[in-house]
Amino acid sequence: MISGEDLKAALPTEPVRDLIEPIDAPKIASGKVREIYDLDDSVLLVATDRISAFDVVLPGGIPGRGLILTQLSHFWFEQTKGIAPNHIIPNEEEILRDSLKLSRDSQLRSMAVRKLKPLEIECVVRGYIAGSGWESYRQNRTVCGIELPAGLQLASQLPEPIFTPTTKASEGHDMPVTPEEAANIVGQDIFEQVREISLKLYDFGSKLAAKAGIILADTKFEFGTDEDGTIYLIDEVLTPDSSRYWDAAEYKVGSSPASFDKQIIRDYLETLKDWNKTAPGPELPPEIVAKAQSRYLEVYSKLVSVV
């Protein structure tokens, strides 16, 4: 595990949008953030510093963002391996350093992972009511078909965490589904397993975050299976991009606290009257980039400091 101070020292001064360093492996795909390569019996995921908002990849990026998110995922994969096996291969460090001979920067933003079949749902756990869950609650007092108590306010803590799966869209937005619909998609047995694992992961993550003075309001997990049907935790885990983290010191029921993610960027973009949220996106001012980078680094530093 790399400390917050060491990670800060490793951040590039300019965003890494495209990998300059050649990777000695065939490229499978290029996503909004990641470059994906085939390593024969495994897959290499390399996170750039690109950033998207409203489904549009913006010019520039946040220097070191991909590095921070990758290292935070590594931290959580290590912390949660007793709850669920994950997709990181055992000899990852050897592959990155010795076989691929990646630079230090590329090693820090890379994951070498198992080849697995991703489940066709995303597993969302909510401990507090916010975001789309709050909007749904205001309409009919339910979230993904789960009825909640009357009288909840924005950012209220729920009586107990709830499992609210969504579809997994290749394009556009994921859509909420009821537990019954999710079970029809992946099968009842797998659904029960990932629901149980997701709730355990949320419980563990929220307790560790609380030690750092952070509230884990909600989060999204993804899972994949191997040929034997074993379920693995995959993709990223408990990062600011897959989770809603709040500073406990700023938390107040009835209002939505500032989150440790790219909400700073979304808020800025919402002030632009001449952008219609379609490509190409606008350039971000340096002060917005600096604030976003600072929030990503802050949540990383706080979380890793408590173990």
TrEMBL record:
GO molecular function: ATP binding; phosphoribosylaminoimidazolesuccinocarboxamide synthase activity
Domain SAICAR synthetase/ADE2 N-terminal: 28-279
InterPro entries tied to this protein: SAICAR_synt/ADE2_N (IPR028923), SAICAR_synth (IPR001636), SAICAR_synthetase_CS (IPR018236)
EC number per UniProt: 6.3.2.6
Protein's pathway: Purine metabolism; IMP biosynthesis via de novo pathway; 5-amino-1-(5-phospho-D-ribosyl)imidazole-4-carboxamide from 5-amino-1-(5-phospho-D-ribosyl)imidazole-4-carboxylate: step 1/2
GO biological process, alphabetically ordered: 'de novo' IMP biosynthetic process
Any Pfam family hit: SAICAR_synt
Keyword annotations: ATP-binding, Ligase, Nucleotide-binding, Purine biosynthesis
Enzyme's top EC category: ligase
Known catalytic reactions: 5-amino-1-(5-phospho-D-ribosyl)imidazole-4-carboxylate + L-aspartate + ATP = (2S)-2-[5-amino-1-(5-phospho-beta-D-ribosyl)imidazole-4-carboxamido]succinate + ADP + phosphate + 2 H(+)
Gene Ontology CC entries for this record: cytoplasm
Family: Belongs to the SAICAR synthetase family.
PANTHER family found in the cross-reference section: PHOSPHORIBOSYLAMINOIMIDAZOLE-SUCCINOCARBOXAMIDE SYNTHASE
Record's protein name: Phosphoribosylaminoimidazole-succinocarboxamide synthase
Organism whose genome encodes this protein: Pelagicoccus enzymogenes
Top-level taxonomy: Bacteria, Pseudomonadati, Verrucomicrobiota, Opitutia, Puniceicoccales
